[in-house]
Write a structure and sequence with these properties.
Strand order of the largest sheet: 2-1-3
Low-confidence stretches: 1-18, 211-218
Number of helices: 13
Largest sheet: 3 strands, antiparallel
Order of helices and strands: EEHHHHHHHEHHHHHH
Radius of gyration: 21 Å
Helix content: 55-70%
Number of domains: 1
Strand content: under 5%
Structural class: mainly alpha
Length: 362
C-alpha cells in the first residue's frame, strides 16, 4: 500500500500496488455502487423521461421536481433560496452516487500501476468511454473527476469523462434526436466531440503531470481476505473524505449561484429577436447553470415549443449540461483554475458558434 500525494498539496491515500485480493474487493465495491444506482434510480428515471417524449415537463427553474413552489412575484432572495433547495433535492441521488462512486474509483485505481498513456487523444478516448455509461450530470460527475485526477489519471482523461457522462449517454442522445431535428442533434454531437478530442487533449498537453510523492508501505506477502478487506475499508474511508471535503461545500455554493443567475434572468429574455450578443449571452449563461441530467435537452425543447428562436435553443442545447459553475469550481480546485477557465470559455465559444450556425439556417 502507498500514499499518492496530489498536486493540491494534500496527500491522497490510494492503493498504489495492491494485492489481487484488494483489487477484487475494490472492483466489487465499485460495481455494487454503480449497479445499485443505475438499476434502482438513474436508468429507470432516464427511460421514463424518454418515453414521455414531447409531453415531458419540468417543475422548477433548475429541476425536474420541486420541494417549494417558486413564483416570480416573490422577493429575489426567497426565490433563490427555494430554487436552491429544489436543485439540491433533484440532485441528491446523483450527488450521493457521485461521492460514493468517486471514492470507490479512487480506491480501485490506486491498485493499478498504469493509468495513462503518452498519447493524449488515446487518453481522451479512454475517458470518453469511461464516462458514457456513468449516467450522471456535469455536476454529479465532478467529484468523480476529482477522484480520477487524484489517482494519477491524465488531465485529458478526466476532462473527457466529465464531458461524455452527461452528453454521450445513450438515453440522452435518443431524447435529443427524438425531440429535435437531426441537424440539431448532429451539431450538439459535433461540439461534444470537439471538447473531448480537441480541447481536452490540448489542455492535457499543456498541463504538468501529477507530481506524485510515493511512500511505499509493507504489505504482508500472504495477506488474508480479512486483512485485504480492512485495508480497502481504510483506503475507501480516506478517499471518501478527500472527495467530500471539497465537493460538498462547493456543491452548496453552486446551488446558490446557479439559482441566483436562473432567477435574475427574465423569463421573456429569449423571446426577442436573435442577435449575436443574445446568442453569446445564452451560451455564457448556459455554460454556467448547474442543471441535472437530461435537463438541458428537456428545457431547450420546452423553450423551443414556446416560441424561442432556434438559434437560442441550439446555444442552450450545446452549453447546458456539459459544464457548470460546479464543474468549474471542482476542476479549478483539483486541476487548475487555468484549465477550469479554458473549459468554460471553450464550451461557451462552441455554443455561440452553434447558435450562429442555427441562425443561418433557412
Amino acid at each position: 500500500m502507498s500514499t499518492l500525494a496530489a498536486n493540491l498539496g494534500t496527500a491522497v491515500p490510494v492503493e498504489r500496488v495492491g494485492t489481487w485480493k484488494r483489487r477484487a474487493i475494490a472492483i466489487l465495491l465499485m460495481a455494487g455502487i454503480a449497479s445499485f444506482f443505475w438499476v434502482d434510480s438513474r436508468y429507470p428515471s432516464l427511460l421514463k423521461k424518454y418515453h414521455a417524449g414531447a409531453q415531458i415537463k419540468v417543475a422548477g427553474t433548475l429541476s425536474f421536481d420541486k420541494v417549494y413552489a417558486v413564483d416570480r412575484t416573490m422577493p429575489l432572495a426567497t426565490r433563490v433560496w427555494k430554487t436552491s433547495v429544489n436543485w439540491l433535492n433533484t440532485n441528491r441521488i446523483g450527488m450521493t452516487f457521485g461521492f460514493f462512486f468517486a471514492a470507490a474509483a479512487l480506491t480501485l485505481l490506486g491498485t493499478i500501476a498504469s493509468r495513462r498513456t503518452r498519447f493524449a487523444p488515446a487518453n481522451a478516448l479512454v475517458g470518453a468511454i469511461a464516462g458514457m455509461p456513468l449516467g450522471v450530470c456535469a455536476n454529479c460527475v465532478a467529484p468523480i473527476a476529482r477522484a480520477l485526477y487524484a489517482s494519477g489519471m491524465s488531465t485529458e482523461s478526466v476532462l473527457a469523462t466529465m464531458f461524455s457522462s452527461p452528453t454521450l449517454n445513450v438515453v440522452v442522445l435518443a431524447m435529443t434526436f427524438s425531440l429535435f431535428p437531426a441537424q440539431v442533434g448532429i451539431l450538439k454531437l459535433a461540439t461534444v466531440f470537439v471538447m473531448i478530442f480537441a480541447v481536452a487533449p490540448l489542455l492535457g498537453i499543456g498541463q504538468k503531470r501529477l507530481n506524485a510523492d510515493v511512500c511505499e508501505l509493507k504489505i504482508p506477502a500472504r495477506e488474508t481476505w480479512r486483512d485485504a478487506l480492512v485495508g480497502i475499508a481504510k483506503t475507501y474511508g480516506k478517499s471518501f473524505w478527500y472527495v467530500l471535503r471539497a465537493g460538498l461545500p462547493l456543491m452548496l455554493v453552486a446551488a446558490v449561484l446557479g439559482a441566483f443567475v436562473a432567477e435574475v434572468v427574465p423569463q421573456s429574455a429569449l423571446l426577442g429577436n436573435v442577435t449575436f450578443l443574445g446568442i453569446l449571452a445564452v451560451a455564457l449563461i448556459g455554460t454556467f447553470l448547474p442543471v441535472p441530467m437530461a435537463f438541458d435537452v428537456v428545457i431547450a425543447y420546452v423553450a423551443w415549443s414556446k416560441g424561442v428562436p432556434l438559434a437560442y435553443v441550439v446555444a442552450l442545447v450545446c452549453t447546458l449540461g456539459i459544464y457548470s459553475v460546479y464543474s468549474f469550481s471542482v476542476v479549478g480546485k483539483t486541476i487548475s483554475w487555468r484549465v477550469a477557465s479554458s473549459v468554460y470559455g471553450s464550451v461557451a465559444a462552441l455554443g455561440t458558434l452553434a447558435g450562429l450556425l442555427a441562425w443561418s439556417w433557412k
